[in-house]
């Protein structure tokens, strides 16, 4: 009886870490495996620039993070730091990953996604391409993810800084989360027209090429791409129990 009492006290202590509803739905408190798919669903014929040039919408390799507290990959109204500039200007998530490693603790996990599904090595994803990655998470965890708008100077997609709750009313998140993402301008390099600028990803000679903006992270609301999430890309999340049901 004593050991049972001890276990129930332990369970109560653990319960206090989570919300009551999440515990009710997930009595074992087990990790749930999730798979996230980032798909480029933009027009295969490309986007049309003001001079008629066709250019492909692309997303860069990126970084995902699981966290409970705010992870601070960026903050609106604050100067980009910790590797956000490298991600937003050249699609390189390695510096952000190093920054996170220096802050690593047991309630935060992260990974880089850089190899398109079906490819042999790291590359951006153009129309029809996808990245996929999996992780396990407990109730209370949130997901953050950053990826560069490939033909911009310093734009990136990310969810709100608090991240996306992976459990809603105790149930693992499932389905389309595209609209949880927003297009941000890192404020580090002056913008040129997407797809045309000489200082953008595919055309610049140096990953840091371009005129400094000396600005702060802000939503890229002035861009016509700001409201085009569902036309350009789709991000879905599938928990393992849902995957089993679909198979
Ligand atoms: Ca900018
Ligand atoms: Ca540049």
Choose one word for the global shape.
globular
Gap from first CA to last CA: 43 Å
Indicate the mean pLDDT.
88
Q: What is the tally of helical segments?
A: 6
Radius of gyration: 20 Å
Describe the protein in words.
The chain has helices spanning 2-15, 20-25, 84-90, 94-102, 229-232, 240-246, and strands spanning 32-40, 47-48, 54-55, 59-67, 109-113, 130-137, 142-149, 155-159, 164-165, 167-168, 171-172, 175-176, 181-185, 218-219, 233-239. The protein is α+β, with helices and mostly antiparallel strands and 247 residues long. It has a single domain, classed as Immunoglobulin-like, CATH 2.60.40. The strands form four sheets. Strands 4, 5, 7, 8, 9, 13 and 14 form a seven-stranded antiparallel sheet that branches. A four-stranded antiparallel sheet has the order 6-1-15-12. The chain has a two-stranded antiparallel ribbon with strand order 2-3. Strand 7 (142-149) and strand 8 form a beta hairpin. The longest helix is centred in the N-terminal third of the chain and has 14 residues, at 2-15. It is globular.
């Amino acid at each position: 009886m004593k050991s049972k009492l001890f276990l129930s006290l332990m369970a109560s202590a653990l319960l206090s870490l989570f919300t009551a509803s999440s515990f009710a739905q997930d009595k074992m408190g087990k990790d749930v495996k999730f798979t996230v798919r980032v798909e480029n669903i933009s027009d295969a014929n490309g986007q049309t620039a003001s001079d008629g040039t066709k250019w492909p919408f692309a997303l860069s390799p990126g970084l995902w993070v699981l966290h409970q507290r705010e992870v601070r990959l960026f903050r609106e109204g604050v100067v980009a730091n910790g590797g956000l500039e490298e991600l937003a200007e050249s699609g390189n998530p390695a510096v952000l990953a190093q920054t996170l490693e220096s802050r690593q603790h047991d309630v935060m996990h992260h990974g880089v996604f850089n190899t398109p599904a079906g490819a042999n090595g790291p590359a951006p994803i153009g129309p029809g391409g996808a990245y996929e990655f999996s992780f396990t998470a407990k109730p209370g965890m949130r997901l953050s993810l950053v990826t560069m708008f490939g033909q911009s100077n310093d734009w990136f997609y990310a969810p709100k800084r608090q991240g996306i709750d992976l459990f809603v009313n105790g149930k693992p998140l499932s389905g389309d989360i595209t609209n949880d993402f927003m297009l941000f301008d890192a404020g580090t390099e002056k913008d040129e027209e997407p797809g045309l600028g000489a200082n953008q990803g595919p055309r610049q000679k140096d990953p840091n090429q371009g005129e400094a903006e000396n600005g702060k992270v802000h939503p890229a609301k002035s861009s016509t791409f700001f409201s085009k999430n569902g036309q350009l890309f789709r991000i879905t999340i599938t928990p393992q129990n849902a995957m089993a049901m679909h198979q």
